[in-house]
């Protein structure tokens, strides 16, 4: 895990190396100050030597200024290194997520990925800054202060040593007990983010069904879970301060008592006793810093594991060593294809599929909910890989293609259409970033979107809100169809993407497809028979298998499922747009 994270330091290695150097230099300056203070008391104040006081006092001021400068330098470079490290972590995770196949994405929830990119990275950023500054400063300062204490008085320094050993054991117990709660806490953030994300994205449904109270209770429960876990963790960590304070004051009292006797017996000077008390505070305060570092490391350990899961996740799909870049045509062949979302586990979603679709054909796909219609077409653009058998596009196995080249030739209009925040033109140019405004308008005319766009206040420059909330479902579908047409694909897949438009508009779109893109293979998934009855051939899906494949007339005569659906819809109970 450390190697995975360390690779993201990159251009901030210099800042990461300079920061500890500044912190060590600051410590050295701080350790000199008590010695100079002892010299002022013993050789200046006690002897009445003002010249010595001025000289050593000037050195103390210079040392303090150097310590301050080194501290500022460490802070600046430490902040630069930690924030840069966090930036690289977020970018590395985001870049890796973009390479994920659908199967990889299925392993992580959306809210989980958001938490990893935000809360978890912030935890690691804070921990990294503390490591560069405090984790270098505290132990180095503690060791030097201990050495200086033993140099002045081994007898009194033994008090520090015993205190450090006792405190070290107590802190180890506190950290080990707190760690299990911190490990449980961060996955709870996933639940909290999921509750917020789901509520905000579906706020219209929440209000329509008057479910605000239910959503409030769900959020409160997720928030309460985090609160309870952190209360338990912080309740244990809270013992750190009183234990530390007790030890600090016990050491001060003990050293003052023993030191006073030694001063009276002339075994120790007053200045040396003052230095020892200063070193005592320094040692114990640095031990407190170390305890804070352990707590921070404990909190960030869970975040490290979660981030490394994303960084080390390898895409299930990869380009072959010598990929094919050109898709010759839109022909599609399924050869004994079976598919399961979890390879080697569970029943296959698709079973023994055999199909031969010619370039330019219009193929309708119909079937009940859960019959694996979408799963069938997802394999064509290699969003998933087949579990068994072969799938060929343009006469070439899809696993031999360069994935970007294949997907550029397969345009998909999904069942759940997505528009992004930006103008209509910007959304359309997802299909072709170089498309002219005229080409965009022509695609919209084919998709029957031009008419409603022209009625908008700013036409094609109308701003689309996030998720397309300021357009209707049917308008959103038509914009997505136009976006797909701009790709000028070999294969066009419409996954129930005209369900929100009336049958007249649906017919116009199908007519435009037939006249404008005759060479493009078109796969149309639909629930309405009227949307597919004029297709060249129709696939009837049932429980992951092909129940029938033929023309509308052939299926009416031979396929019971298709005939039942057709009769139920044309009998007046199916299509509300039917005249």
Protein architecture, described:
This protein is α/β, with parallel strands linked by helices. It is built from 19 helices and 12 strands. It has helices at residues 2-6, 13-45, 50-98, 102-107, 110-152, 154-201, 203-208, 212-237, 240-264, 270-312, 373-378, 403-408, 424-428, 437-446, 450-454, 473-485, 503-516, 552-558, 560-573; strands spanning 332-339, 350-357, 362-367, 388-393, 396-397, 410-413, 422-423, 463-464, 491-495, 521-525, 537-542, 545-550. A 6-stranded mixed β-sheet has the order 6-9-10-3-11-12. Helix 5 (110-152) packs antiparallel against helix 6, helix 5 runs antiparallel to helix 10 and helix 14 (437-446) crosses helix 16 (473-485). The longest helix has 49 residues, at 50-98. It is elongated and about 115 Å long.
| Helical coverage, percent range | 55-70%
How would a crystallographer describe the biggest sheet? 6 strands, mixed
Beta strand %: 5-15%
**Cα shape:** elongated
Q: Evaluate the radius of gyration.
A: 35 Å
| Secondary structural class | alpha/beta
Question: Would you count the extended β strands for me?
Answer: 12
**Strand numbers in spatial order across the main sheet:** 6-9-10-3-11-12
Count of alpha/pi helices: 19
Distance between the termini: 65 Å
Mean pLDDT: 83
What are the defining features of this structure?
579 residues, alpha/beta, six-stranded mixed sheet, four-stranded antiparallel sheet
Structural topology:
Layout: H1 2-6, H2 13-45, H3 50-98, H4 102-107, H5 110-152, H6 154-201, H7 203-208, H8 212-237, H9 240-264, H10 270-312, E1 332-339, E2 350-357, E3 362-367, H11 373-378, E4 388-393, E5 396-397, H12 403-408, E6 410-413, E7 422-423, H13 424-428, H14 437-446, H15 450-454, E8 463-464, H16 473-485, E9 491-495, H17 503-516, E10 521-525, E11 537-542, E12 545-550, H18 552-558, H19 560-573
Parallel strand pairs: 3-10, 3-11, 6-9, 9-10
Antiparallel strand pairs: 1-2, 1-4, 4-5, 7-8, 11-12
């Amino acid at each position: 895990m450390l190697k995975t994270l360390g690779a993201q330091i990159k251009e901030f290695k210099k800042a990461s190396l300079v920061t500890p150097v500044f912190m060590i230099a600051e410590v050295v300056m701080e350790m000199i100050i008590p010695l100079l203070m002892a010299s002022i008391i013993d050789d200046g104040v006690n002897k009445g030597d003002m010249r010595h006081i001025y000289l050593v006092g000037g050195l103390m001021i210079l040392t303090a200024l150097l310590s301050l400068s080194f501290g500022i330098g460490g802070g600046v470079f430490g902040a630069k290194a930690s924030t840069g490290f966090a930036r690289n972590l977020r970018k590395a995770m985001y870049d890796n997520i973009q390479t994920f196949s659908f199967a990889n994405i299925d392993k992580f929830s959306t809210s989980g990925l958001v938490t990893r990119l935000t809360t978890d990275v912030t935890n690691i950023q804070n921990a990294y800054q503390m490591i560069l500054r405090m984790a270098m400063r505290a132990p180095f300062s503690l060791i030097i202060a201990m050495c200086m204490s033993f140099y002045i008085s081994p007898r009194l320094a033994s008090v520090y040593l015993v205190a450090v050993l006792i405190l070290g054991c107590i802190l180890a117990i506190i950290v080990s007990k707190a760690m299990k709660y911190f490990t449980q806490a961060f996955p709870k953030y996933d639940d909290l983010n999921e509750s917020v994300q789901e509520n905000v994205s579906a706020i219209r449904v929440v209000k329509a069904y008057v479910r605000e109270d239910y959503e409030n209770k769900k959020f409160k429960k997720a928030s309460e879970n985090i609160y309870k876990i952190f209360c338990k963790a912080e309740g244990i960590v809270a013992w750190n301060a009183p234990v530390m304070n007790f030890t600090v004051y016990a050491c001060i009292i003990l050293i003052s008592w023993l030191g006073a006797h030694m001063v009276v017996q002339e075994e120790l000077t007053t200045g040396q006793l003052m230095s020892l008390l200063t070193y005592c505070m320094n040692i114990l305060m640095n031990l407190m810093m170390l305890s804070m570092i352990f707590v921070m490391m404990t909190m960030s350990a869970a975040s490290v594991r979660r981030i490394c899961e994303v960084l080390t996740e390898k895409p299930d799909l990869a380009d072959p060593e010598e990929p094919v870049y050109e898709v010759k045509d839109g022909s599609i062949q399924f050869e004994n294809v079976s598919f399961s979302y979890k390879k080697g586990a569970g029943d296959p979603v698709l079973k023994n599929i055999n199909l031969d679709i010619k370039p330019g054909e219009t193929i309708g796909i119909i079937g009940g909910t859960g019959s694996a219609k979408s799963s069938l077409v997802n394999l064509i653009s290699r969003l998933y890989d087949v579990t068994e058998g072969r799938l060929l596009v343009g006469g070439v196995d899809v696993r031999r293609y360069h994935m970007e080249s294949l997907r550029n030739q397969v345009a998909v209009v999904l069942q759940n259409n997505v528009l992004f925040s930006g103008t209509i033109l910007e959304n359309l140019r997802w299909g072709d970033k170089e498309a002219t405004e005229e080409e965009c308008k022509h695609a919209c005319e084919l998709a029957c979107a031009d008419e409603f766009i022209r009625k908008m206040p700013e036409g094609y420059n109308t701003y689309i809100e996030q998720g397309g909330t300021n357009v209707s479902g049917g308008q959103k579908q038509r914009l997505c169809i136009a976006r797909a047409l701009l790709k000028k694909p070999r294969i066009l897949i419409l996954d129930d993407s005209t369900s929100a438009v009336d049958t007249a508009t649906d017919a116009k779109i199908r007519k435009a497809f037939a006249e404008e893109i005759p060479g493009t293979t078109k796969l149309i998934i639909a629930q309405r028979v009227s949307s597919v009855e004029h297709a060249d051939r129709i696939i009837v899906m049932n429980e992951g298998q092909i129940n029938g494949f033929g023309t509308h007339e052939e299926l009416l005569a031979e396929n019971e499922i298709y005939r039942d659906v057709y009769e139920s819809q044309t009998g007046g109970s199916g299509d509300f747009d039917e005249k």
